[in-house]
Specification:
Number of domains: 1
Strand content: 35-45%
Order of helices and strands: HEEEEEEEEEEEEE
Number of strands: 13
Length: 165
């Protein structure tokens, strides 16, 4: 039999531990913008930004200055426990066409973090977007897609029970 004090201590430790299983909440993520026809020779790799996923908008990117004639399109990214939403508060246009032109979200883990990644058609106004996952990274390819102040992209995710690295 476990003494009451021992049960209380175990319960307190369990409640204090951050919850990461099946959720992106509390995970460390680095967000970058990349453009490439050949992954090994990118045309643009923007400055990455790293945050811990929590309440509110995680990333609000703006232009960084032209590199090879390309620059970052302003985008707001909100990451929820099992959903990612992107919006374009400023400007209007079409993304440069390349084999990949978009966003890479790299989460701190060594396991396959995503069991499923899907574009939510009800929360998305953009056309021609592709998404896929590789280990702890999520790739969002917006190459050739149009954007503007009413453009939205919503992704629904099934997050695996991956430990933090």
């Amino acid at each position: 039999m476990i003494p009451r004090a021992g049960v209380a201590l175990v319960l307190a430790v369990a409640l204090a531990a951050p919850v990461h299983a099946g959720t992106l909440e509390g995970r460390l993520v680095t967000f970058t913008v990349e453009t490439w026809d050949d992954r090994e020779a990118p045309l643009l790799v923007a400055r990455g930004r790293t945050v811990t996923v929590g309440a509110g908008t995680e990333f609000g990117l703006g232009p960084e200055g032209f590199t090879a004639g390309l620059d970052v399109v302003p985008v707001d990214v909100e990451i929820g426990p099992t959903r990612i939403e992107l919006s374009y508060p400023k400007g209007i246009g079409r993304f440069y066409e390349a084999k990949f032109n978009g966003y890479v979200l790299r989460f701190e883990t060594d396991c396959a973090l995503f069991d499923k990644v899907a574009i939510d058609p009800a929360g998305t106004t953009m056309q021609g977007v592709e998404v896929w996952a590789e280990t702890g990274a999520l790739y969002i390819d917006v190459s050739g897609a149009g954007y503007g102040p009413t453009s939205t992209l919503a992704l629904d995710l099934e997050v695996a029970d991956c430990p933090m690295s």
